[in-house]
Amino acid sequence: MPAVMKHKISVFEKLIADSIRNVLKDYQPRTLFIPAEYMLSMGGKRLRPLLTLMAADLFGKSGEEVIDAALAVEIFHNFSLVHDDLMDNADLRRSYPTVHKKWSANSAILSGDALVIEAYRYIARVSPDLLPDILGLFTTTAMKICEGQQYDMDFEQRLDVTEDEYIEMIRLKTAVLIGCALKIGAIIAGAPPEDADLLYQFGINIGLAFQLKDDLLDVYGNPETFGKKIGGDILSNKKTFLLIRCLKSASQEQKKELYRWLTATEYDPDEKISFVKNIYDELNLKFTVENLIEKYYLASLDCLSLVNIPDDHKRDLVSLSENLMYREK
């Protein structure tokens, strides 16, 4: 990554980190807000607010002029993770105990609600002349994320989920917030509508590639760097692209054994992970998903190339996107 980009990114990341420390500060009762602050303090990639700042920077707006909207996106994202972890009964998030494990399910529900309310408080700080467009985009995105989460839950009860259904689910659950983050930054910076829309589509494609990479890392990643237990999706029978393609492509004998594991109520977790991963390997599904990731990554670059600003101004986003595609966590 070029030194100039590293410097700019580090400045944006520090602005985000410093600003997040003041979110929910001194709110009472502390029993409500400490779990929410804990979630925000975990860090993580903080990709979405970074993209908001970078999109605004493309069109000449400083980070300080966009930080409230960027924080709104990040706060909402963390709300969705608190509730998502609860629904999945996940133990870890970013290598830390999840909110419902550290406190309780009730705390996760209520602190998550507090986060989404705070997200709207921050988005409402946008300039009044831009607020209708920004609020409309933000609210539409929020609803789409709920739709995506419901599809994800519905898929738990099905073994006939199609690849197209899965892609639509992750578009709603993951990609739309990344697109929204970019478009918000562009709108605040006064970008032409067609450029703001292209950045949104850039974000959608990056989001799809990002989630597919997450699915891949859940099976093939290093648990020490990934921050979550490897094989969690396999143990929960999560309908990832890997599993959907496996059910479609497996031999009759493989399907028979696979269905046995998918319907078993008692099993050795390591044995189940090993068995399913072996079938993935036999069908060369890692290569298949890597090709799909590359497809969406290239589509994102196509969208970015059409944004009507000099190409050298886009290098930061291109480099960041490349790092996301080849990350190990």
Report low-confidence residues grouped into runs of 5 or more.
none
Cα Rg: 20 Å
Task: Assign the CATH class.
Answer: Mainly Alpha
Report the structural category.
Answer: mainly alpha
Q: Would you report the number of β strands?
A: 2
Query: What share of residues are in beta strands?
Result: under 5%
Distance between the termini: 18 Å
Succession of helices and strands: HHHHEEHHHHHHHHHHHH
Averaged pLDDT, please? 94
Widest sheet: strand ordering? 1-2
Shape: globular
| Count of spatially separate domains | 1
CATH topological fold name:
Farnesyl Diphosphate Synthase
Number of helical segments?
16
Give the name of the CATH architecture: Orthogonal Bundle
CATH superfamily: Farnesyl Diphosphate Synthase
Helix-residue proportion: over 70%
> Quick one: biggest sheet?
2 strands, antiparallel
Give a description of the structure:
The protein is 73% helix and 1% strand. The protein is mostly helical. The chain has a single domain, classed as Orthogonal Bundle (Farnesyl Diphosphate Synthase). A two-stranded antiparallel sheet has the order 1-2. Strand 1 (92-93) and strand 2 form a beta hairpin. The mean pLDDT is 94.
